[in-house]
Amino acid sequence: MNLVLNEEETMIKEAANDFLVENAGPDHLRNLRDDPDSKGFSESLWGQMIDLGWPSLLVPEEFGGLDFSHVGMGQIMQQVGCHLATSPLLITGILGVTLLKSSSSNHWKAKILPLIAEGKTKMAIAIDETSRHDPELIQTKLTPKAGEYVLNGTKLNVVDGQVADSFIVVAKITSEKPKEPDDICFVIVDSNQKGISVKNNLLIDSRKTSSLNFSDVRATDKQILKFNQSSESILQMLLSTANIYLSAELLGIAEKAFELTIQYLKTRSQFGVKIGSFQALQHRAANLWAEIELGKSIVLKALRSLDEIDKDINKIASMAKAKTSKIAENATNEGIQMHGGIGMTDEFYIGFYLKRAKVSQMLFGDWKYHLDRAAYLSGY
Q1: Over residues 362-379, mean pLDDT
Q2: DSSP 227
Q3: Distance CA 17, CA 14 (A)
Q4: Residue 152 phi/psi, 5° resolution?
Q5: Average pLDDT, the chain
Q6: Ordered structural domains, the chain, with CATH
Q7: In angstroms, rounded to a whole number, what is the distance separating the alpha carbons of residues 317 and 320?
Q8: pTM reported for the whole predicted model
Q9: In sequence order, what are the beta bridge partners of 210?
Q10: CA-wise closest residue to 158 among 364, 356, 357
Q11: H helices of 24-54, where?
């Protein structure tokens, strides 16, 4: 496996950085935070991403996309972390596309994928039902009724739920045979469908998630996504994909936090000298640099494993998420420590990175969850 970016991947990374330097960053996020009408992301930034073709990168060519690699898209997500860019790219342009591509439901592929490629629709994927990530605890029910189905249940921490045109809901479809266990399914419903209520929640990083309640929401068999594999394996694949891209974002957060900290060490004076000359701080910075370099390798390996459909992708994804979560935690915590208390003031950028890192670490499982998952998948 090649753990070096090729020419195309490098160009995408550089182009994403150049664009986001001008159009994103802590100052833009601060303005978004202070806007009382904010939807939790920058609509103007999202529009520019659409113009650049980012939502179409993973969409197959037959549906109007570019059919590019996960490694290429991963470079964009890494820069998203560096510049704290807010958009529906992760959920709609990556996870929504990945799930639909895996489906054998050609109707939904033909209907939704071209819209995603053109930036004309936004999706949300509703999985978790508790405050902490637990994909095995699914109590939302899809129950047969009068030749159709009714959907009942509650979903928490739904990213982009406040702006989605449609929801892909993970539910248990009730077996008509009493002794057979209920199976996991993915059902697509319009966000304005009768029986759906949405409550928005503001996160510490100024973004939003939603709590969704489904009360006798009607659905047909056509709305249930079909797959050639078990729905349980598809769910694990989807979550692994999500966590690999979050790992790329966390790596970007760590890199930028480290850069800001080094800049501060070179400019802040104490006792008549720059504090970067203190050996104790140099040692801490050197250790952090080494950890970030390790993070680059595990993230690139995870992204290449997605492209190569590695049989150990679930284990690799959890290893990447566990490692980058700790790296980002250390980078932002050390950044605050080396800035001193002033680092948490609104004037300095490092606090914005700490807040985003906390949210990304918890989304779809924190480092403890993934450390346990990686150990379990390794046979321990």
Answers
A1: 96
A2: B
A3: 5
A4: -135, 135
A5: 94
A6: 7-121 (1.10.540.10), 126-223 (2.40.110.10), 231-377 (1.20.140.10)
A7: 5
A8: 0.96
A9: 158, 200
A10: 364
A11: 26-34, 43-52
